[in-house]
Write a structure and sequence with these properties.
With about 350 residues, the protein is an alpha/beta fold. It contains seven helices and 17 strands. It has helices at about 15-25, 50-65, 75-90, 95-115, 155-160, 170-180, 205-210; strands at about 5-10, 30-35, 65-70, 120, 125-130, 135-140, 165, 215-220, 225-230, 255-260, 265-270, 280-290, 305, 315-320, 325-335, 340-345, 350-355. The strands form three sheets. A six-stranded antiparallel beta barrel has the order 12-15-14-13-16-17. A five-stranded parallel β-sheet has the order 3-2-1-4-7, with helices on both faces. Strands 9-8-11-10 form a four-stranded mixed β-sheet, with no helix packed on it. A hairpin with a 7-residue loop joins strand 13 and strand 14 (about 315-320). The protein starts with a strand and ends with a strand. The relative contact order is 0.13.
Length: about 350
């Protein structure tokens, strides 16, 4: 009998390495696929793709699976990076990792894997998939501190039907232990941070190459000028670092935070104190909604949602608005709700989907 073929997205990191190992142990016909998504200035200083490919090849060699490298830089630029720049120009703060998952890892990569005869694809994401009455659900990972369902909430039924997340029931510490026990060379490699194509480089310097800089004033809600900003693109709601603001006539001695952007007047609105009323919101409106089941949730029910990745789920209700927009109303005010980021809804452990905060 033919073994089912699974193509594993291998990044060079420990999570995807253990994913491939576990599937091989379970008897699948495993092929590793290394994706290169960025090549504008692929220098070793910031971009680790050369070393990542070496690490992925070393793991593939150890567990005895073939590894193919594929270049999706063109698709990435068209589908993810152009959106990233448009959002920044509009004054929003996008999350390109979410689009990278739905457009590259589970679209371009999935299409390529199917050409290789794959029955399923697998990644090292911490999440779970289950089928209930013919519908595929995306579930949180058992390791709550590592759960990545937030980043996968734009996947559709067809994508989930092909997806496997073997790490969904494991703790990160267990994953590293498995890697070490099986002599995988990257068992202690630190997790990558930073946006998928920017790496660890200075963000302001990177954006400067693609967007024109328009410095302007930092002002309080009352209009007092507190300093100069370098360009509204470079700031995000709730930002505290890098503002360079001293006292001011009415200073309370508390730290300053970015509260809003006035795009028309090119002014950055800053406030003092973490719990300033302008930083707290009881509701938000989201656009470009995507529901994993294909249907919007029942508006009579209570759900939970998060407005950023590293955040506890917050109880809320969901109601439709005009133009296919959706309003989320929270029981408790949410801090630094940021336009361009994603709000993702949950029913217990089930990720329902989400949209872009307006």
């Amino acid at each position: 009998m033919n073994k089912q073929r699974v193509v594993v997205g291998m990044s060079g990191g420990v999570d995807s390495a253990v994913t491939a190992l576990l599937l091989k142990q379970q008897g699948y016909d495993v092929i590793g696929l290394f994706m290169k998504n960025w090549e504008d200035d692929d220098t070793d200083e910031y971009c680790s793709s050369k070393q990542d490919l070496i690490d992925a090849a070393s793991v593939a060699d150890t567990i005895d699976i073939p590894l193919e490298a594929v270049n999706f830089a063109r698709e990435y630029k068209e589908r993810v990076f152009s959106y990233f720049l448009r959002e920044y120009q509009a004054g929003r703060t996008p999350n390109p990792d979410i689009l990278c998952n739905s457009e590259i890892k589970f679209k371009a990569f999935l299409d390529h894997a199917l050409q290789l005869g794959a029955h399923k694809i697998a990644t090292g994401h911490y999440a779970q998939v289950r089928e209930v009455d013919g519908l595929f659900q995306l579930l949180k990972a058992d390791d709550a501190s590592k759960d990545q369902s937030y980043f996968l909430h734009r996947l559709n039924q067809q994508q989930l039907s092909r997806a496997m997340f073997p790490l969904g029931k494991l703790l990160k510490s267990e994953v590293r232990k498995i890697a070490e026990e099986h002599n995988l060379s990257n068992y202690a490699k630190k997790d990558s941070t930073g946006i998928c194509f920017i790496g660890e480089r200075p963000f302001r310097e990177f954006l400067n190459r693609y967007l024109p800089t328009q410095p302007g004033e930092m002002v309080t809600p009352e209009g007092e000028v507190m300093g100069k900003h370098m360009g509204l693109y470079f700031y995000t709601i709730g930002q505290r670092q890098g503002l360079g603001i001293g006292g001011g006539k009415k200073s309370t001695g508390e730290p300053w935070f970015v509260a809003a952007k006035d795009m028309q007047r090119n002014k950055l609105i800053v406030v003092q104190g973490h719990d300033h009323p302008l930083l707290l919101k009881h509701d938000l409106t989201a656009m470009d909604m995507h529901w994993i089941s294909g249907n919007a949730p029942d508006i009579a029910q209570q759900y939970a949602a998060k407005t950023r990745y590293r955040q506890e789920d917050a109880p809320c209700s969901v109601s439709p608005e005009q133009n296919d927009q959706v309003k989320f109303t929270f029981t408790q005010a949410q801090w630094a709700v940021t336009p361009g980021q994603s709000v993702v809804a949950y029913d217990g452990a089930i990720c329902l989907g989400g949209g872009i905060i307006l």
